[in-house]
Specification:
The structure holds two protein chains of two kinds.
Chain A (H helix, E strand, L loop, with lengths): L3 E14 L2 E7 L12 E4 L11 E9 L4 E7 L3 H7 L6 E8 L13 E6 L4 H12 L5 E6 L8 H7 L1 E6 L6 E2 L7 H4 L4 E5 L2 H14 L2 E5 L15 E4 L2 E4 L6 E3 L8
Chain B lengths: L5 E3 L2 E3 L3 E3 L21 E7 L12 E4 L2 E4 L8 H12 L5 E6 L4 H12 L6 E5 L10 H4 L2 H14 L3 E5 L7 H10 L4 E4 L3 E4 L1 E2 L4 E2 L5 E5 L4 H14 L4 E4 L5 H10 L1 E6 L2 H4 L3 H15 L13
Parallel strand pairs in B: 3-4, 3-16, 4-7, 7-8, 8-9, 9-10, 10-15, 15-16
Antiparallel strand pairs in B: 1-2, 5-6, 6-14, 11-14, 12-13
Classes of the chains: A alpha/beta, B alpha/beta.
């Protein structure tokens, strides 16, 4: 898929949570093709301590509105700067990068999309693309409390949504891997993105249940293009760049045995 | 339009802008984004005789105006390069230069000899300055004796343009430059990264897997500039300048300090098209200042 370096225009920046903002970007030309699970390296201008681009996963692509959505967790100086962008500002974007999730190959595939925290971001676009193919996705989304569940109303538009919260304030109490949907239904594949301990727990479940499972990693990156070899993950094929060979990996390829 | 072509001994460059090893992959990664044949050369990823897995993650830390890395020469080895990568890059219409590293003079020489056999690789850059591997790399580049031994061994087996990449982690870089010149190097490139360190104060641990790494980016530019200026005065062979170059202005400073050509490294991560912009910026500057050729500004300091 062709990579692009474009100055996209900020259409809106919406604070959807104390720690998260949703940035909607657009361009005068139709946005390039992008796959769910791919990401964007954004340039952070005017932040002295932010030297490198920031990798942000593609949250959603609205083709009708010609919009690219980025869900950004405000964790440091660079992302704070992104949260401060205003409508009309320009964001220099290098995208789409990496390999996305495997899309359904057959109409009867039952795919479970498991997300936690800001990791829910790429699953929205994945679910939307599945719905476009006429396949209903099932989302399993976890958060600490009900107010930490992001974009639930939009997830509900694209498929069935199951929820866990650690304090039980919404959905089932516990972690995503405790949800009873995993006992009640059988899925042919799982796609997951979220904190590493959560993804490792999901991977353990998938191995045990003998379900295909893809995880989206977010190792520290510099170039985003597979040139600098900084973001490597140990795999059965040796050290591979998360930016180029990932960020989505089948768990069979990873050395996650714990 | 001012003439931009320069020569590194026998090697003709259409313009003085090249990309630095380890920051531009094999060029192919950037092919969607810029015309690869628009720059004077591409120095591809460090290549060793045997495959290397490199160091453990984490290998990179962002620092003030720069970054530290300890990648550690991860590559699939020279045979893989010759069989699988060379066919993909040999027809790119610019100087495709291979950065060669090793753990003994014999290793370096054997690796260089295999690349000597490749028609479309007109030069190698000998990396005697990698700070991130224990067995070799910088160990050779920090003493005149070590640097000489590698260059001597390679020179016997490599017959095209031989560039030697120097380490800044030395007391007097001009001594090393003179030593490799005496062994027949056609050019020296400098600087490789400066050894550095960063610490996570919450976990009370270094941020890099092997504790230390090489610093690159704008933070190192003044150090690199000083060294290029010193070396250009100390040797007769052409000097290639690098270290934090992020703009045409930076590049012109290096040319004035005595560099015949320059390499762009870390700035490729911020703007993957920066090398073309630097080329155009040099050209515009020369035109604006009534220069007929880039040669008019090289080494004017």
């Amino acid at each position: 898929m062709k990579k692009n370096l474009l100055d996209l225009r900020v259409k809106s920046v919406e604070r959807i949570h104390e720690r998260y903002v949703l940035i909607r970007l657009t361009d005068e030309h139709p946005l390039p093709e992008m796959m769910p699970g791919q990401f964007v390296e954004v340039r952070v201008e005017g932040s002295p301590s932010t030297f490198l681009r920031r990798p942000i996963s593609i949250n959603y692509v609205d083709r009708l509105q010609n919009e690219l959505w980025l869900l950004v967790a405000v964790v440091g100086e660079g992302t704070r700067h992104l949260a401060g962008l205003q409508a009309g500002d320009v964001l220099n974007c290098l995208f789409p990068l990496g390999n996305g999730f495997t899309m359904p190959q057959a109409a009867d595939e039952r795919i479970l999309l498991v997300g936690g925290g800001v990791g829910v971001a790429p699953l929205l676009y994945m679910g939307a693309e599945m719905q476009r193919q006429g396949i209903e996705p099932t989302f399993l989304l976890g958060a600490r409390t009900s107010k930490d569940l992001l974009m639930l109303d939009i997830f509900n538009r694209f498929g069935r949504v199951y929820v866990t919260t650690e304090d039980g304030s919404e959905g089932e109490k516990g972690f995503v891997t405790n949800h009873t949907i995993l006992q009640r239904e059988l899925f042919s594949r799982i796609a997951t993105c979220g904190p590493t301990p959560m993804m490792k727990a999901v991977a353990r479940y998938a191995r045990h249940a003998q379900v295909e499972c893809e995880v989206s990693l977010e190792n520290l990156m510099a170039c985003g293009l597979g040139a600098c070899l900084c973001c490597v993950e140990k795999t059965v094929d040796g050290n591979l760049c998360v930016c180029k060979e990932g960020p989505v990996f089948n768990i069979r390829k990873l050395l996650w045995q714990d | 339009m001012a003439r931009l072509n320069v020569k590194i001994n026998g090697l003709e460059l259409k313009n003085p802008v090249m990309t630095a090893s380890g920051t531009f992959g094999y060029g192919l990664e950037f092919a969607d984004l810029m015309p690869l044949d628009g720059i004077g050369g591409i120095i591809v990823k460090g290549t060793t005789l045997s495959p290397r897995e490199g160091n453990d993650y984490p290998r990179m830390v962002e620092t003030a105006s720069g970054m530290l890395n300890c990648v550690g020469l991860q590559n699939k080895g020279v045979d893989y390069f010759c069989e699988h990568i060379y066919p993909q890059i040999k027809d790119i219409d610019t100087n495709m230069i291979v950065n060669v590293s090793g753990s003994s003079p014999e290793d370096y020489a054997e690796c260089a000899a295999r690349i000597d056999a490749l028609d479309k690789i007109p030069a190698i850059e000998l990396n005697i300055s990698c700070p991130n591997v224990k067995d070799g790399g910088m160990a050779f580049g920090v003493t005149c004796c070590g640097a000489s031994s590698v260059v001597r061994a390679v020179r016997q087996r490599y017959h095209k343009t031989l560039i030697v990449k120097l380490s800044p982690n030395v007391t007097d870089i001009t001594e090393i430059a003179r030593a490799v010149e005496a062994e027949g190097a056609d050019s020296v490139s400098l600087i490789n990264t400066l050894m550095g360190m960063a610490i996570d104060i919450e976990r009370r641990r270094p941020l890099l897997s092997i504790n230390t790494g090489g610093l690159s980016g704008p933070a190192v530019k003044p150090v690199a500039m000083r060294m290029v200026w010193q070396v250009a005065k100390a040797v007769r062979i052409p000097v290639i300048g690098l270290g934090g170059i992020s703009s045409a202005k930076d590049a012109i400073e290096f040319l004035m300090a005595g560099a015949t050509a320059i390499e762009i490294g870390t700035a490729n991560f911020l703007d993957p098209t920066i090398s073309i912009k630097v080329r155009d910026g040099i050209s515009d500057w020369l035109d604006a200042h009534g220069c007929q050729s880039v040669q008019e500004i090289i080494g004017v300091i």
